[in-house]
Amino acid sequence: MKTSRPSLARTMMSSFRNRRQRPTAVEPTEPAIGGDGVLTVASYNVHKCVGTDGRFDPGRIIDVIREIGPDVIALQEADQRFGERSGLLDLNRLRLETGLLPVPVLGSTKSHGWCGNVLLFREGIVEDVHQVSLPGLEPRGALVADIELHGREGRSGLRVIAAHLGLMRWSRRQQADFILDLMQSRRERPTLLMGDFNEWRLGPGSALTRLEPVFGPLPPPIPSFPARLPVLSLDRIMANRTGLIADLTVHDTPLARVASDHLPLTARVDLKRLGD
Prior knowledge:
Elements: H1 8-18, E1 38-45, H2 58-68, E2 72-76, H3 91-98, E3 101-102, E4 118-121, E5 124-134, E6 140-151, E7 154-164, H4 169-184, E8 191-196, H5 207-210, H6 212-215, E9 235-239, E10 245-250, H7 254-259, E11 265-270
């Protein structure tokens, strides 16, 4: 049976139909890493903490993260883009309210991450971290971190690649190839790739298709942009192990719709699969 690829028109119609079913409130999630044998991970483009109402409010971003209650979360655009690239979040408040700590990076003492990418985690040890500059005209980068996670199920090793791909299609293709080459040059282990890929298209010309040899068939696209009425699947979470990711969904709440122009994407990782 022939299957049709998702189109922008179909996605828009689906978003309009689902608009009435969007939640009106949500309670913050209490973190409990590995409590049910799963890990909650998320990816969130915080748009330099400027919401859809045009207001700069880093506190709202922290509140959205509290709603999610992640064990690992990749943020994009969490630093100023130019100048000293100073961090925009109150990391001390974030630690106190969520228990999340940033993966350490080298460079500016004022920035939170690398090229705007910040990777936060709870209850683990960072074994290794690499700051990678991605090819292209725009300043883009990725954080590659090997983390030993500590939970109720014991210790589990996981590699996380947090990335923000470029706006130009040819740049995204180069960046996807670069990420695959990077993975092949390192010891193989369970890996999550997540971030804002700026790519909603599928097919031979898509940067996403180039990732399939390592990350397998792409999961169904989930619209996450723009936050008020998402129609484009720009944000992605994928794994190099079949069945590692479950319950991939968009975190769609009243607060998330206003805090940034992207909605966060969340997923559950089966800790037992990390040993496969």
